[in-house]
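Can anyone check this?
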Amino acid sequence: MLSSALLDFVEHLEHRDLGSVAALALRRVVGSGDSVPLQLQSRFLEMFGWPVLEGCGITEIGGYYAAQPLDPLDREGKAGAMGRPTKGTQVRLVEDGKDVPVGSIGEVLLKTPSLPLGYWEDPEATKELFQDGWLRTGDLARFDLDGFLWFVARRKLIIVRRGSNLAPAAVERWLLEHPKVKAVVVVGVPDSAEGEVPVAWVLPGDEAPTAMELEEHATKGLASYEQPVSRLTLLVSVKQNRASMISHEKSQFINFPIVYLV
């Protein structure tokens, strides 16, 4: 279940006090598409008494390449992790062509029995992503000492600000910790002085946060180069497309209320 759909589902049950009814029928939910925010995981856990399982997959292999164990004891303390590599899947984390040590960030490379030979009638993409029997996913992740994979970012979404790489997902996770923030999407936009800067679109909760509240929250948990600049736009819907935000350069959001950050 996508995080946005899971948010709608949880809020629907909360507003109608149906959590106890749903808990009787529902046995398992697997998050997909993006990591499930910790705040949303907590709300789900409180309602159902068991956590959302997480995993990560890719179309090219026809399924998940990592998933959390079903046994709660095996995944204790691993909320937010993608899980361990699935059966039959080989996973490497690589940077500049070399495998990175445990705890370091690298691009996820995959080898599975279901790996295709390439893309139909697209030799350029095949050459770029299928190399020596491995598939380059474009996902950046790290392994912990227990063999769990932790998603960091998608390489193509990494924002380079004054030479420093920052992951939009890391900024989003911190902003989501603010009690008045319901959902958030962070994208990089061109900047003549800094190369790129992070800009955040925020969906407020029942009470909208002020610019000062968000600014103070950002300074407490984010490095200076990670802090969103120029403005935070308050959305009226969480169902916004990240690619549209980037390609249309925010033009379709000018009618929303804007909170400026000084």
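Reply from J.R.: I decoded it. Confidence is low (pLDDT under 50) at residues 235-240, 243-262.
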